[in-house]
Write a structure and sequence with these properties.
By secondary structure, this protein is α/β, with parallel strands linked by helices. Helix content is 23%, strand content 21%. The strands form five sheets. A three-stranded mixed β-sheet has the order 2-1-15, with helices on one face. A three-stranded mixed β-sheet has the order 3-4-5, sandwiched between helices. It has a three-stranded mixed β-sheet with strand order 6-7-8, with helices on both faces. It is globular and about 50 Å long.
């Protein structure tokens, strides 16, 4: 760690993941997806298993939801719901191809003893567009999640929700453009946001790590942090250097197959949050 970098502390997390057993790209709902490009499902599974094993080796708990045949994007568990303080807002997907995933996630949560499980009225794609940073929810809109759903999240979770508008179709979910590193630290790509949202982010996180387009383009912001370790693609080299300078420990992950669907490490990972306590 560089001499003047702050000490960072990992907090054990509980995650939900979905094995990419049925992963493929046979429709296009974002600019990364091209059904004409072949996918290698066994390779996707191996890469995903390495991500899973990395979480376990860092001391995190990973729960699994059964993949459903015919739902190739179900591997992107972050989109299934937003969970805060044991309350669950189940996703309501924008595109018809993903709509049936909602029922699978709803069933999973209803049988796991969460204190409240709500099926959303408005379109929202879970943690794809809802990122929890300390006591606030950062909520994306522009491509998938409707702005009206931000009020729904505020009512259910009882915390401030900061709406952020995405303007670049390659960064169609908030978690492709911004990663929460710790309660009060984030990294993001300013070019993905409207001028008003850039101003809001500057005011909220004056010391944020700002990513360049090249690192955003390799999905460097689709990262998962436990407060100390930050899992991100090895190609995001400049971000890794900046993270290390701030005391974080970058851990490279390769999810090249899932990137063909516009997904990365964060997309595969839904955090299950209980009462601010670490549950293991
Ligand atoms: N193919 C998926 C879609 O377009 C990718 C979802 C990525 N998930 C995420 N949290 N950004 O919906």
């Amino acid at each position: 760690m560089p001499p003047h970098a702050p000490a960072r502390t990992a907090r054990p997390r509980r995650y939900l993941m979905c094995r990419p057993t049925h992963f493929t790209v046979d429709y296009a709902i974002n600019p990364w997806m091209d059904p004409a490009t072949p996918t290698d499902t066994p390779l996707a599974i191996r890469q995903w298993e390495r991500l899973y094993a990395t979480y376990v080796s860092l001391g995190h708990t990973v729960e699994l939801i059964e993949p459903v045949p015919g739902l190739p994007d179900m591997v992107f568990a972050a989109n299934g719901a937003t969970v805060l303080d044991g309350r669950v807002l189940v996703a309501n997907f924008r595109h018809s191809q993903r709509v049936p995933e909602s029922d699978a996630y709803q069933r999973w949560f209803r049988t796991r003893g969460f204190r409240e499980v709500r099926q959303a009225d408005h379109v929202n794609e879970g943690e794809g567009d809802h990122l929890v940073a300390g006591g606030v929810v950062l909520a994306g809109t522009g491509f998938r999640t409707e702005r009206a759903s931000h009020a729904e999240a505020r009512a259910l979770f009882g915390v401030p929700v900061v709406s952020l508008t995405l303007v670049d179709p390659r960064f169609y979910h908030l978690d492709t453009a911004l990663a929460v590193l710790d309660d009060d630290q984030v990294m993001y790509y300013p070019g993905a946001f409207s001028p008003e949202s850039r101003a809001a982010l500057r005011a909220l996180f004056p010391g944020a790590i700002l990513a360049e387009r090249a690192d955003a383009e390799v999905f460097g912001l689709n990262a998962v942090s436990d407060g100390r370790h930050v899992l991100l693609p090895s190609a995001a080299r400049r971000l890794a250097t900046r993270l290390a300078a701030q005391g974080f420990e970058p851990i490279p992950v390769d999810l090249s197959e899932l990137l063909k669907s516009g997904g990365g490490a964060k997309c595969c990972t839904l955090e299950l949050r209980h009462s601010g306590r670490a549950v293991s």
